[in-house]
Amino acid sequence: MNKKFYITTPIYYVNDKPHLGHTYTTIAADVLARYHRMIGDQTFFLTGTDEHGAKIEETAKKAKVKPQQFVDEIAAKYQFAWDELNISNDNFIRTTNPKHIKAVQQALEFMYKKGDIYKGKYEGLYCKGCEQYKNEKDLVNGKCPEHKIKPEKMSEECYMFKLSKYAKDLEKKIQKDELKIRPIERKNEILSLYKEGLKDISFSRKKVAWGVPLPWDKAHTSYVWADAFLNYLTGIGWSGPPSDSPLPFGLAQGGRKGGELNTPSPCEGEGWGEVCPADVHLMSKDILRVHATIWPAMLLSLELSLPKQLFVHGFFLIDGQKMSKSIGNVIAPEELVKKYGVDGTRYLLVSATTFGHDGDVGWSKFDEKYNADLANGLGNLVARVLTMIEKLQINKGTLIKSDDLKLKDEIKEYNKLFNDISIDSALFKIWEVISKCDKYISDNKPWELIGEDNKKAGEILYNCLESIRIITWMLWPFIPETSEKIWQSLGLDPSKEMEKDFDKATKWGELNSGVQVKKCNLLFPRIT
Ligand code: MSP
Fold it and tell me: Measured between alpha carbons, how far is 203 from 109 in angstroms, rounded to an integer?
């Protein structure tokens, strides 16, 4: 039985179009989803947009557009960007989807009837930028360090969620890694937050009209995070808790572009209480606290299983500065694609920083890396080897099976790195193989042997080409189009390749020595 693998990105706010930060998380999630599909896991990859709340209401108002029209336009920009980047999400969930809204109302009502949501009053600070409640000690010079704005003072009658009720239980689960938080320093940071104790939080707003109305008191709308978190359930087909008896799971929005789900929901056929939890919720540090407190507490209240892991990646700075509209250094995904192509962009973002740690990027670094690793490293290796094999064949030589370069250990390490979600290290592992291959070529000089000693040249070039074939497999989660182009050069059909079992396909010697290679167009043209 193959394992299940369910991965999510945060659902992004639609107050603005996507930028490099959102693109990074989404590509990283795509790499993980593709890897798990490649090794045969039953994989579901969910992304989408978070479309309610005060921030979006205000932005739409400023743009003099009705909120629904505003969110439709920006959500379409996200979908367009992810399509362009070859993101293989199985569903794109939008929180303005009527099925999602209905499920949110049912979930909140369930929690209300249980007594976990009660009427109270919230007095405190609220940052609209984060859509989060703040303590004085979270602020720097009285401002939210993230958004550089003074949080507003709120004093409002509202419905509160009994977060405190679940704190002890959650703390234990986090300690024991039943709810795993990685990197480890993030787990420690959350545990110290739990040590300070968790207070109940406001779960509704009276003054925000652009939200999900509470079914038992329509003067209130749901706190935007309560609505947003439930996407992780509705996005895989959950239609809300049962009223009396278990409900069958109706499919939510469905489809990569909002059509039908093209991958079976991992919940299909399962009953209430067994909704499949995410294996990995991917995000950055800005939203870890809420994911490590409110979200699992909601799940406990709803009597559902917790996610297995929250994985927190770093924040990108642009040439040492925070990305911001006012500085004017915001990079949009289409700018990257225009310059480096889809796979160039995917490569540059994943390799930019250690996954889980902050990174500093910028155009000149991207240019340098693109030329060194893609145009020279990978592109050059493939072009050189294919040219030499053509020359060998013109000189009446053939490839001859040989095994000087076996790559078993590298593949083993690659799998281990993916298991630890060290995706940048898994990528570097591939470049180690590329360097190993380059060195093998310069040590053995096959070009001098063609026509002189075709047998030896045929053996050396077989080793090179078989390494390249294995490299294409390892590359596929990261730069799938490039892998497919290389397969075509080897006369292999990409869709047939993808049906193969990864372990078997990457076994040394699978390449037929009678293969007729076809040179492909330059994989990565140099940037000058
Ligand atoms: N809508 C909420 C999430 C709800 S999930 C139930 C939200 N949206 S957001 O649009 O602000 O997205 C935040 C996420 O975008 C971060 O956690 C991270 O994944 C990504 N990034 C945004 N800026 C980033 C950088 N500068 N660098 C890296 N990732 C960043 O929060």
Answer: 12
Classify the phi-psi angles of 118: left when phi > 0, otherwise alpha if psi is within -120 to 50, otherwise beta. beta
The Cβ of residue 406 has, within 10 Å, a number of other Cβ atoms equal to 15
**What's the predicted TM-score (pTM) here?**
0.94
**With a 6 A CB cut-off, is 21 part of the ligand 1 pocket?**
yes
For residue 62, is pLDDT > 80?
yes
Is 464 considered catalytic here? Answer: no
Atom 21 (ligand 1) nearest CA: 21
Ligand 1 atom at minimum distance from 322 CA: 26
- CATH top-level class for 4-313? alpha beta
Domain ranges of the chain: 4-313, 337-505
- Which residue out of 46, 104, 236, 284 has the highest number of ligand 1 atoms within 8 Å of its CB and is therefore the one to mutate? 284
At residue 408 the predicted structure's pLDDT band, cuts being 50, 70 and 90, is very high
pLDDT tens digit sequence for 217-271: 999 999 999 999 999 999 999 989 876 433 333 333 333 444 345 556 665 544 3
Q: In 17-92, which ranges are continuous DSSP H helix?
A: 20-38, 54-62, 67-84
Average pLDDT across the chain, whole number:
92
HSE, CB side, 13 Å, CA atoms: give it for residue 361. Answer: 27
Selection from 435, 433, 473, 454 nearest residue 388 by Cα: 454
Q: Is 127 a catalytic residue?
A: yes
Centroid of ligand 1 to alpha carbon of 22 (angstroms):
6
Nearest CA, atom 29, ligand 1: 21
Residue 133, Cβ neighbours under 10 Å: how many? 19
For a mutational test of ligand 1's pocket, the pick from 7, 13, 59, 313, i.e. the residue with the most ligand atoms closer than 8 A to its C-beta, is 13
Q: What is the CATH number of domain 337-505?
A: 1.10.730.10
| Short-list 204, 211, 278, CA closest to 238 | 278
Name which of 190, 120, 199 is nearest 162 in CA terms.
199
Work out the percent of the chain whose per-residue pLDDT is above 90.
81
Ligand 1 within 6 A of CB of 343:
no
3 state SS of 237: coil
- Is the CB of residue 278 below 6 angstroms from any atom belonging to ligand 1? no
3-state SS assignment for residue 438:
helix
pLDDT at 146: 82
The pair of structure tokens assigned to 358 is 């902050």
Please tell me if the CB atom of residue 13 comes closer than 6 angstroms to any atom of ligand 1: yes
Rg (CA), the chain: 26
